[in-house]
């Protein structure tokens, strides 16, 4: 099977191959999700949905960094692997900061302009599909990061987790607006709060990668 999860006793190359498959799958899915979300958002005048599609491109970039990190993956202790892990961790952290900034700006714009979609159906459909897909990717990425002891892969797993959380915000916000249109602001307010967590995670990754004693690992130590 394409996504057969390796056994904990399987050698590193098997887990590295599994992580690459997850990265390619994440790129393909998020590109499709981005096109659908931005298309629906434009047609439905939904700023939240359009912004959600733009955010999906962040995970595409994160997955590309993972593929670069896994080039010629050898033992975790090699100097080349450690350098790639440091750089990938740093840039994934930067992507988190951009995602946090974009989320803040999008949420603030939606709140100040009172923008809300004409219908909640596209948001409910896209967010439901995304929650399921991101859950699968997050669990697989987290396991691979633990076995390969890579802070870059752990950061990429957090990226999938954040995408799942944003999907949940979009789903609950769309559902709330469908039940009670006066709650048009709920999704934007929740995303604004979530952006604080996203920004903190990104800053911690950047700071960890800049430490002289960076040693990789899922804890970003």
3D architecture notes:
- The chain has 221 residues and is mainly alpha-helical.
- The chain contains six helices and no strands.
- It has helices at residues 12-43, 47-69, 79-113, 121-148, 151-179, 186-210.
- The longest helix is centred in the middle third of the chain and has 35 residues, at 79-113.
- The radius of gyration is 18 Å and the shape is elongated.
- The two termini are 34 Å apart.
Topology:
Layout: H1 12-43, H2 47-69, H3 79-113, H4 121-148, H5 151-179, H6 186-210
Helix pairs in contact: 1-2, 1-4, 2-3, 2-5, 3-5, 3-6, 4-5, 5-6
What is the CATH T-level topology? Alpha-lytic protease prodomain-like
Any idea what the CATH superfamily is called?
Cation efflux protein transmembrane domain
Proportion in helices: over 70%
* Arithmetic mean pLDDT: 85
Number of domains: 1
**Roughly how many Å apart are the termini?**
34 Å
SSE series: HHHHHH
Q: Label the structural class.
A: mainly alpha
Shape verdict: elongated
Number of strands: 0
Radius of gyration (CA) equals 18 Å
Question: Strand share of the residues?
Answer: under 5%
């Amino acid at each position: 099977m394409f996504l057969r999860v390796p056994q904990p006793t399987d050698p590193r190359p098997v887990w590295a191959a599994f992580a690459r498959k997850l990265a390619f799958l994440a790129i393909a899915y998020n590109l499709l999700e981005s096109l659908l979300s931005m298309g629906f958002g434009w047609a439905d005048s939904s700023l939240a949905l359009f912004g959600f599609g733009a955010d999906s491109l962040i995970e595409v970039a994160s997955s590309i960094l993972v593929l670069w990190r896994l080039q010629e993956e050898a033992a975790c202790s090699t100097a080349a692997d450690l350098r790639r892990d440091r750089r990938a961790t740093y840039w994934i952290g930067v992507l988190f900061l951009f995602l946090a900034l974009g989320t803040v700006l999008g949420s603030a714009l939606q709140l100040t302009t009172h923008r809300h979609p004409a219908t909640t159906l596209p948001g409910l459909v896209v967010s439901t599909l995304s929650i399921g897909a991101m859950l699968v990717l997050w669990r697989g990425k987290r396991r691979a990061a633990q076995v390969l002891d890579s802070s870059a892969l752990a950061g990429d797993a957090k990226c999938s987790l954040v995408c799942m959380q944003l999907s949940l915000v979009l789903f609950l916000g769309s559902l709330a607006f469908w039940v009670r249109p006066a709650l048009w602001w709920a999704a934007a307010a929740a995303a604004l709060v979530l952006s604080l967590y996203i920004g903190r995670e990104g800053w911690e990754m950047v700071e960890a990668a800049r430490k002289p004693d960076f040693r990789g690992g899922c804890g970003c130590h």
